[in-house]
Amino acid sequence: MKAITKRCGKAAVALLGFGLTLGGGPTLADTAVVLNSRDGTVSLIDMATLSESARLYVGKEPHHLLWALSGEILIANAAGDDLVLLDAKRGQIRSRIPRISDPYHLAYSPDRRWLVVNSLRLNQVDLYEAATLKLVKRLAVGKMPSHLAYTRDASLVFVTLQGENRLAAIDLATQTLRWKHPVGEAPAGVWMTPDERYLLVGMTGADYLEVIDWRRPVTVARIVTGQGAHNFLPLPDGRRVLISNRISNTVSVVDVERLAVVEQIPVPGGPDCMELTRDGKRLWVTSRWVGKVSVIDMETRRLVKQIPVGRSPHGILLAYDAAAR
């Protein structure tokens, strides 16, 4: 396929053979946006036809993405040291933000004051002013900062440290390290329960999640989910949360009140990041090891389809949510 190229600042953006252009293109249908981390591309998947409608180059090692304050999609290119703003309606790159050091994972604070960026490769956590992207503080909190979660009042941000098997708490008022707590092997996803009583942390190097009373802090329970316990997605009822198990090829349904696994959903190919459709009927999962996205029927718990994308698909976002934000 012949690539169509266009300059975007100093970076070349390649649209790979699907007929999408950067200027004046048609409005996309409801679209799943998938980051192919090893290819440096984004796959745009039509959610109605379950087929890839476009693929574009965005930068080196895009791993995670989120809705920007502007309503566009913010993509973090870890090895490229930059962020990309993607138009959610047309699937077009709007701008590139350079000199963002190794942005592996990122999230806005609940009050939208902070954008915290984890630099897994460089062992640092950067605190940016969300509105201006001014770097306020760079913290060397430990080895391989990975995923993050906040308290509801945005007073603390919690960061998993994959390289030293700890969970760190950062005080956002003082921009200082509050504490570090030992956990299991290769902690990744971290999620706060709705009542803010516990943090759940997935152990990618093991087969369980840890339940942490973060106010003390102390580990109060371990819940076996499956090998390669990795990332979380809460269900709309507020009583259950999903966790992907990359090696066991399952997604566990965890009852938050009982702190127990109540169901296992088979998902082939190394399930990683997850998104649920607005109606709750389908679960979209990046299957990291096989270069596909798996679509699961949540009523039958069966695989609907695996959609081929690029190499090592990681982050995923459902773009129709732009209208509901």
Estimated radius of gyration: 19 Å
Query: SSE order in H/E notation?
Result: EEEEEEEEEEEEEEEEEEEEEEEEEEEEEE
Query: Number of helical runs?
Result: 0
Report the β-strand fraction as a percent range: over 45%
Shape: globular
Note the gap between the termini. 36 Å
- pLDDT averaged over residues: 91
- How helix-rich are the residues, as a percent range? under 10%
Sequence stretches where pLDDT stays below 50 over 5 or more residues: 1-25, 321-325
Largest beta sheet: what is the strand line-up?
A: 5-4-3-30
Number of DSSP E strands: 30
Major β-sheet annotation: 4 strands, antiparallel
| Structure class | mainly beta
Organism: Pelomicrobium methylotrophicum
Keywords: Signal
InterPro entries: Host-pathogen_enzymatic-act, N2O_reductase_N, WD40/YVTN_repeat-like_dom_sf, YNCE-like_beta-prop, YVTN_b-propeller_repeat
Domain YNCE-like beta-propeller: 29-318
Question: Brief overview, please?
Answer:
By secondary structure, the protein is an all-beta fold.
What does this structure look like?
With about 325 residues, this protein is mostly beta strands. Helix content is about 0%, strand content about 55%. The chain is built from no helices and 30 strands. It has strands at about 5-10, 10-15, 30-35, 40-45, 50-55, 60-65, 75, 80-85, 90-95, 105-110, 115-120, 125-130, 135-140, 145-150, 155-160, 165-170, 175-180, 185-190, 200-205, 210-215, 220-225, 230-235, 240-245, 250-255, 260-265, 270-275, 280-285, 290-295, 300-310, 315-320. The strands form eight sheets. The chain has a four-stranded antiparallel sheet, with no helix packed on it. Strands 6-7-8-9 form a four-stranded antiparallel sheet, with no helix packed on it. The protein has a four-stranded antiparallel sheet with strand order 10-11-12-13, with no helix packed on it. The protein starts with a strand and ends in a 7-residue tail after the last strand. Mean pLDDT is about 90; it is low at about 1-25 and about 320-325. It comes from Pelomicrobium methylotrophicum. Pfam families: YNCE. This is Beta-propeller fold lactonase family protein. Keywords: Signal. InterPro entries: Host-pathogen_enzymatic-act, N2O_reductase_N, WD40/YVTN_repeat-like_dom_sf, YNCE-like_beta-prop, YVTN_b-propeller_repeat.
